[in-house]
Task: inverse folding
């Protein structure tokens, strides 16, 4: 697909659906730790076990999957934005711009529901809708310009991360100096006491004390109301402060990349197998050593706050490379003639990605919070993956069954109705 060629296919693009299906299933394998354990996503020493099978699970995720399923999902969202605009222009009487912005705003609403009603503070839909509003301005850029923009946005995000790392390093040094003075028996001044307080606050964001961990578990297990009261502040932070610091740059760079890869015909499976093999080999050759270095460094430090902050400097490069490697592997799989039934099932999961993503939150709300089984904080890390396997089997089963009778998933249908309103879509 050249830069100047319109996207004219009326049919679903199977490669996109398969990749989206793998991504939405994979996202659960990462999110389940945040859904089921307190403060354990990055640091297994906080909860869920840090030895044996539990540590092995953390290592596998950190090495192979951390951030990559979300990366694939975001790349595909950027591509889907272009597809929607093209199809809306050809199939409706309403201006595509109006429909596009309406679609993004309703996606933000879904994200708010997922965050506040379904109690998942790691929701990505709000980010997609908000950044999707910005994405519209890039729609007519050539693939090369989109790639350049993606790199520039990624570098800008890296500069923000680097600034935060340097700021933390300075705070850590000031706190250590103040602690040394205190241990010598001297009275600390206000500036020194503030440095100690600020450092301890920062540290507890990563390594909370046991009473803080117990309070989180008790609140989420107690009742839906208690869980809501506890989670709403966390969700607000993630969708405001954290979004502005890290979410916009992270999501926008990957979406721009997705738009470029679609225009180049790479996401649709039109490129040569040699290109996909290059994606896979180069991506893994770069990403695996970076991720392995982070794992070794974190474990050697006992998962210290300083080591975790340092890992953020290489995180984006490792995550990006591994995402490209996975993308190459998946698209090679899509091009092969084998496993046609498996591809069909995965494509069905991808066609119902929004429904499946939100249903994961609904199921986990029932499993982990006081609204249901109240298993939050009660399982070891490796035991969470029995739940993941169960949800995967459900979604791999119900997605193709549903699509035998309906053209799209139930949430996709609602989203479409909200986007188009009462307008009749032209055939």
Result:
């Amino acid at each position: 697909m050249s830069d100047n060629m319109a996207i004219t296919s009326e049919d679903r693009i199977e490669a996109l659906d398969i990749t989206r299906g793998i991504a939405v299933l994979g996202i659960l394998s990462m999110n389940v730790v945040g859904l089921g354990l307190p403060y354990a996503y990055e640091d297994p020493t906080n909860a869920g076990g840090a030895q044996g099978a539990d540590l092995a699970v953390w290592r596998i995720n950190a090495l192979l999957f951390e951030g990559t399923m979300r990366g694939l999902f975001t790349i595909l969202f950027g591509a889907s934005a272009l597809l929607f605009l093209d199809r809306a222009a050809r199939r409706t009487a309403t201006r595509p711009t109006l429909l596009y912005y309406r679609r993004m705003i309703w996606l933000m609403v879904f994200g708010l529901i997922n965050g506040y009603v379904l109690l998942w503070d790691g929701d990505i839909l709000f980010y997609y809708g908000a950044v999707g509003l910005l994405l519209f301005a890039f729609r007519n850029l050539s693939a090369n310009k989109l790639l350049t923009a993606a790199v520039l946005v990624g570098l800008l995000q890296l500069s923000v991360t680097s600034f935060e790392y340097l700021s933390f390093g300075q705070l850590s040094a000031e706190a250590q100096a103040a602690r040394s003075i205190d241990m010598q028996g001297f009275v600390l001044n206000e500036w020194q006491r503030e440095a100690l307080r600020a450092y301890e606050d920062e540290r507890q964001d990563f390594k909370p004390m046991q009473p803080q961990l117990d309070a989180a578990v008790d609140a989420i297990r107690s009742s839906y109301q208690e869980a809501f009261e506890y989670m709403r502040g966390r969700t607000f932070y993630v969708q405001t402060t954290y979004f502005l610091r890290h979410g916009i740059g992270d999501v926008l760079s990957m979406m721009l990349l997705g738009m470029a890869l679609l225009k180049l015909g790479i996401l649709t499976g039109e490129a040569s197998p040699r290109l996909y093999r290059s994606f896979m080999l180069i991506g893994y050759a770069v990403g695996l050593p970076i991720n392995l270095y982070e794992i070794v460094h974190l474990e050697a430090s006992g998962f210290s706050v300083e080591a975790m902050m340092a890992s953020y400097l290489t995180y984006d490069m490792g995550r990006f490379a591994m995402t490209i490697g996975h993308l190459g592997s998946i698209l090679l799989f899509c091009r092969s003639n084998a496993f046609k039934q498996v591809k069909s099932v995965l494509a069905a999961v991808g066609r119902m990605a929004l429904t499946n993503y939100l249903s994961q939150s609904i199921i986990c709300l029932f499993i982990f919070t006081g609204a249901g089984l109240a298993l939050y904080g009660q399982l070891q890390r490796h035991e969470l993956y029995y739940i993941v396997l169960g949800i995967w089997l459900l979604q791999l089963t119900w997605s193709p069954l549903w699509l035998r009778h309906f053209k799209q998933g139930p949430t996709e249908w609602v989203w479409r109705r909200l986007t188009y309103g009462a307008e009749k879509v032209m055939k």
